[in-house]
Specification:
Number of domains: 2
Helix content: 25-40%
Order of helices and strands: EEEHEEEHEHEEEEEHHHHEHEH
CATH superfamily of the largest domain: ATPase, nucleotide binding domain
Protein name: Glucokinase
CATH topology of the largest domain: Nucleotidyltransferase, domain 5
Strand content: 15-25%
Strand order of the largest sheet: 3-2-1-4-7
Number of strands: 14
Radius of gyration: 19 Å
CATH class of the largest domain: Alpha Beta
Mean pLDDT: 93
Low-confidence stretches: 286-293
CATH architecture of the largest domain: 2-Layer Sandwich
Pfam families: ROK
Structural class: alpha/beta
Organism: Deinococcus sedimenti
InterPro entries: ATPase_NBD, ROK
Length: 293
Amino acid sequence: MTRLALGLDVGGSHVTAGLVDVDTRHVQRTARRDVPHSAPMATILRAWAEATLEAAGPQAPQVTHLGLAVPGPFDAPNGTSHMTHKFPALRGVPLRPALRAALAGTLAPELPIHFGNDADLFALGEWWGGADRPERLLGVTLGTGLGSGFIRRGQPQHTGPGVPPGGELWNVPTPEGQLEDALSGAAVTRLGATLTGRQGSAADWAQAARHGHTGALAVWAEFGRHAGQRLQPWTDAFGAQVLVLGGNVSQAFDLFAPTLNVGACQVRRSAHLELAPLLGAAALSGRDPVRSA
């Protein structure tokens, strides 16, 4: 019988659910609901439940578990948010029983519910959903901020050799301030202003570069050099065989990849994009499909 899981990717303005075939590691169907993180708890949980049930569809009785990719800080074992900058209505609330109540009468009442950090599950989803699963993979999301996930043998790592505290790279000190300040959309904007004297978002500079704008091409070449200089110490220390880049800035990967050097580590853009956290969330299971080949 086909094993099916549900993955939920919780964002600050919307939630996306996906029905995942655990054996083929393929997302069969997705559903999305817009809901601001500032909404009341009942509104947030209703949106999560609606997206979950739409994604499950008629296969709901076959679902073996539900995994959620959530921002941090979050106590995954206890299912409790410690966030102060997002989701104020959920802070300190045990979310497993609350979500089960929102799903009452639709899925199995004791359906296992697992939580994981969204950046960890992006990286895990890239590993779990890939054809080649290296022993060590580092996933980094480049966008408004910077997220990171260190994966060793299919398990997120938060401590150990080559892993920063909590597995988080965003606040690692750099000459720019923190690593997030050097490797984000805002960093591209600052580089553009420094090198050309003009203002523009990462998307603006990508569009200009693809139209052959010399200054824009220089911006992305410099960003690639910066990214290599900032990330190689971590790929080396962790012994990563693969570095996967996601997030909005990675849409310009072809523009900055030629100057991005992280030594012997292979670098690629996310293969699953917005589906990666859904795959990572589905990989969370008491039966541990994360480790299965």
